Amino acid sequence: MGLTAIIRKNREESYIDYSLIFIILFLLAFGLIMLYSTSSYEAGLDFGDSAYYFKHQLFPTLLGLVAMMIMSYIPYRILARLAMPIYIVAAVMLLMIIPFGKTINGAKRWIYIMGISIQPAEIAKVAAIVFTATIIIKLNRSLVTGKGFVAAALFPAILAVMVYGITRNLSSAIIIMGITVIMLFVSTPGYKRYIIAAVAVLSLAAALVLIIANSEQTSGMNYRFERVLAWLDPTAHASGKGFQTLQALYAIGSGGVFGKGLGESMQKMGFIPEAQNDMIFSIICEELGLFGAIAVMLMFLLMIWRLMIIANNAPDMFGALLVVGVMAHITIQVVLNIAVVTNTIPNTGITLPFISYGGSAVIIQLAEMGITLNVARNIGKD
Prior knowledge:
By secondary structure, the protein is mostly helical. It has 2 domains: 28-73 and 217-382, no CATH class; 76-189. The protein has 13 helices and 3 strands; from the N terminus they run H-H-H-H-E-E-E-H-H-H-H-H-H-H-H-H. The chain has helices at 3-13, 18-47, 52-73, 78-100, 120-139, 146-167, 170-187, 192-213, 223-232, 243-255, 280-312, 317-341, 359-377, and strands at 102-104, 107-113, 116-118. Helix 11 (280-312) packs antiparallel against helix 12 (317-341). The longest helix is centred in the last third of the chain and has 33 residues, at 280-312. The radius of gyration is 22 Å and the shape is globular.
């Protein structure tokens, strides 16, 4: 082998998607800055330390970066052999919530392992990606049959049902099924079944909204139904489920084009409950204005574009499906979070990837990015 060929081979083996890495690091740094700005007032009141939430997010972020680095070097094809163990671990951890789960803000969704708080629903999302990619490859051509399609969707659906049944976390259950459907969509020819399914789901949702909106009795109504009513008319539920949405809209409107300035938000001072979680985008709009909001959305669009390029150039179908699953996860969560904050859809409690407060989420998201970087490293190899 000549010297030129050796150099070319080494370059191929050491290929790294620096564009994607820059986007990830930018979103993480921006997220930490906005987290501190958003949570400092509430943290100072509740814990006597304005950097409380920042400190508790910094360690998972660093841990997530280590996980991303490790996953970028572990051959992604190993995940095909680990699909079932990962699935079982996710299911067991969900079941562990029943006897050992910790309730935070009225939701029992976390467990503690060796002093570390873990949200099993986040692990279930990774399990859905890996397992769906594996079973799609195994089913191959039989996937186009009704039986094969149902078989591919069944196991992720079980995880989604477990997530909702055990944790009452509807948003995570929706994300798991959304990831699965998108992965199946890119793997199977034809659009008929997906169009029919989409029309059926939208019709059912519309019918449900009409029933709730025309219901004469609202007292004692399920809290999810109350959220629908608050979505339809936030001002009529300003003292209840519509309070958070209204305050978020006030924050967005008061930000204008360039915002009030970093750290100058008024709505974060107790008006938006838990603003550092799923409502952090509204504080971004208030402090950085329309300009800041568009900049954040552009960064996510660039990330999705890079993921799409990696998926299109992946060395095999399994690698492409893994990247599609990660892309679906990020896309669904970003779209739903911004839709909730702007009151486009009812409040579902979905966080903004890499930016909202949440240790388990950022670790899992960075580990997923590590998988995509590993697939990218193998582009062009024989």
